[in-house]
Description:
The complex is a heterotrimer of chains A (206), B (340) and C (408).
Chain A: H1 4-30, H2 44-55, H3 108-111, H4 115-123, E1 141-144, E2 166-169, H5 171-182
Antiparallel strand pairs in A: 1-2
Chain B: H1 2-10, H2 22-47, H3 59-70, H4 83-97, H5 99-102, H6 113-116, H7 118-121, H8 129-133, E1 138-140, E2 145-147, H9 149-160, H10 177-189, H11 216-226, H12 228-231, E3 238-239, E4 245-247, H13 265-275, H14 286-296, H15 311-318, E5 328-329, E6 332-333
Chain C: H1 25-59, H2 61-64, H3 71-78, H4 80-83, H5 101-104, H6 107-116, E1 118-124, E2 127-133, H7 142-157, H8 165-174, H9 183-191, H10 212-219, H11 228-232, H12 250-262, H13 268-275, H14 279-290, H15 306-314, H16 326-329, H17 348-360, H18 370-377, H19 380-391, H20 403-407
Antiparallel strand pairs in C: 1-2
Helix pairs in contact in C: 3-7, 6-7, 7-8, 10-14, 12-13, 12-14, 15-19, 17-18, 17-19
Amino acid sequence: MNRIVPLAAVALGILAFATVLLVIAPAAQIRPLEGTPGLQPYTQQELRGREVYVEQGCVYCHSQQPRGPEQAPDAQRGWGRAAVASDYVYDRPHQLGTMRTGPDLLNVGARLPSRDWHLTHLYQPRAIFDWSIMPAYPYLFEVKPEAEPGDVVVALPKDDAPDQGVVVATQDAEDLVAYLLALDRTMPAGEDSVRDYGYESREPRE
Amino acid sequence: MKQNERRIVEGGDSPQQRKAGDGAKRAILALAGGAGLFVLGSIAFDLGILGDDGSHPTNSSERESDMAAAYFSPPAETSIPDGPDGDAIRRGMALFVNTKTNAADFVGNELSCASCHLDKGREPNSAPMWAAYVIYPKYRSKNKQINTMEDRLRGCFTYSMNGQDSPSGGPPPAGHPIYKDLQMYFHWLASGAPVGESLPGQGYPELEKTALGYDPQRGAQVYEQNCAACHGSNGQGQRDLNGKLVFPPLWGPNSYNWGAGMARVNTAASFIKANMPMGQGGTLTDQEAWDAAAFIDSQERPRDPRQTGSVADNAAANHGQDTYYGKIVEGRLLGTGTGR
Amino acid sequence: MTRPEEPSRPGENFEPYEEMRQIPIGVIMFAVALALWGGVLLYQSSYAVAVGRADETVLSPQSEQGLGLTGAKLFEANCTTCHQPGGEGVEFAIPPLDKSPFLAGGPEIAASILLRGIDGPIRVGDETFDGHMPSFASALDNAEIARLATYLQARFAGRKQAISGERVAALRREIADAGPFAGGQEIAARFDSSLSPQPEVKPLAGGMGISSGILELVNQGRGEVWSCSSCHGDRGQGADTVPRLAGLPADYIAKQLLDYTEGRRRNENMELVARSLSETEREGLGRYYASMRAASTARPSLGGNLERGRELVLSGDWSIGVPSCTSCHGPSAFGVTPGFPGLAAQHPSYTASQLAAWVSGERDNSRQKMMNVIANALNDRDRAAVADYLATLPPVPAPATTADEVKR
């Protein structure tokens, strides 16, 4: 350890270099971005729904980052165009996710625009898809003998409906669905959008 | 002592022993060697030794090159020239696809040229016009004379387009601009094709007779399964919401008359085998193609314009094998016409 | 035991270290080669970024129809499938534009017709046409309609009078909720009485003869199933992978609903809904959506090549055995009742997903496997191109139901 100064200098230099490339440069690239043209900020209800999304750990199974055709066939799966940085300006923190046990959700509001569908699906996914491995969230709902005015009743096939009474969405369920319906980045990405196209040539291969 | 230890650990030459200029040499060697390695690597990669660059030829491009090798390819529509020639070619093309409108006075049914000459007369094996253009003028046994392209076209208007029921009562008169425009279109389609040669893909490829022969009753089943979805169970075709004909009628007053080539079972069978159902040419068996043709051509259609006396006389004079003209099917004499 | 003398052995406290030792030349060569490789990849990647950017600009709405297309190009792209390249129309079906008196009366008439469409009989020259023209309001922007109307004037009526994009914008606001012109009669009454006499327009049916049960299914749903409109929109316009239903043939819709229950078409959401419907309801829903005119909400979104899409839709690609879409789905892809649905203004994600479903066999309800064969012949890029091009077309001009038809 007789050359502590040069060693420290090189180590700090590497750290500084990495910080510039991995933190400062991307921030400089992304900070000035405005939202993708047509993207609306979340409403209060949608933000509450986002809290529910985080609390329930949706991110452990669902990503929010459709990939381009050079990386994954997400467009063919119907998950929408590749996400760009400006799609996330209102997401703090973003819910990109790393696991795809379930489908990507960044455009779920566009491809499944029905509030009623989402309520049924959250109450019991297997009411719709008998092969679904998504957990059911019955505790986001209440079973009441009769619906009161203003209640949102969940449509359920007879096999999945309780023997008596009706299933009514709680405020949490309604908020969560409002958030899911707000997940719609199907608008064009805009010409100055920031996106990593990777190194793979996108020249058509014939 | 210390000196001694150091030498052992180093193991290499001492710095003092290095010659001057060694560094520069090494640098040049390293750069050249690196570049060489890179080039070698690229070559190996290109040859596929190092793996796969991911460029698989797609199915479609393979097929495309096969087809291009086998058949003459007419020029692209975008290459129609400007000027009077180009205008005539465009008029000819419009006549070809929208015959009823653009030759209203001379067309007595709802067909257009492109009903049977698919892809605007470009598709091989559906009697493409680039192949027809280069074999005329020639002798035709149908009228026992030398036919120019105009003569041939007059035949089309007389029989396939059923000119007798048109407002003018016949085909366009000799020298009519319709003939000129159509020929300009064909001439352009045949740009670069060898004159006088029978090109691959010409006409409809002749279909061998089957051991069973053909039978309209079997054909009715084939028709219902394979043709009716588009041409309708009643054979009258289908229209879109504006009344524009999308699928042509196959019999009845709005189809080709008894004098047309397509009214002969062998011609229809050859066309069907090679081209129908649309986009699935060649999928019907030979037997199915013959039977479907027999079913379609044993339906009543406009009368033969050559008929002067009785149907039987005309059958003897102008009709040979492989036609239901003048025959009795299900108790009805065929060939009497549909009337309008 | 004494060890033999080892003079070269270092002392115990010695800490080994290394001084200058040359890196083998081979390693340097390898590093240089890697650096070159990296440089080349970076260069290629910069090219890929340019391609990607270019791809994405195709997606932006400004460039989808090619901003700045001339009137002639707009005419070719939007009018010729029906009115023909020479403007001669089609006998008994499509009125000619050439020398049409409707074009001679100033560009505002043409612009208004383009914005609203026509539904009902119209007399042009000596002939009467009882047809349906789509509204281009949702397919073309104001400047495009202005250029197109000006071009039509100049070419077919020989008038040099131009109309501005601002004037078209004003017209658009004026007639926003007007719906299609009721035949030539309304056009003559509004603009130019010299166009009269125009044929009588049959009275329209109120309420389209749709029962309240069907309307409830559409708007509220029922106990165990969701409403149609919750996914397909209140005008049947659809979105993204949810198809547009407005203007599809009634029998086609009813057949799809039946096919969901019988496994010829797969989609769990629709299977659940379709299982709860009776035959009468399936037919009623079909009739409800078949007579609906809704503005197009579809935009190209898959980055498909619109030129290639146009080629496949209008001419096909016979070298890969694909006939044109229009040869079966009608000259303007408005559909042919009952078997061939309209494709115009359908959402590209839906069209592409269906083409993929024909390939995978997830959808298998086409007669004679027509669509399976065609979809198989197309590659991914072709499917995106077709889907995107179809989204640029004006929506199906669903015929308004007349009082006679309701009785029937």
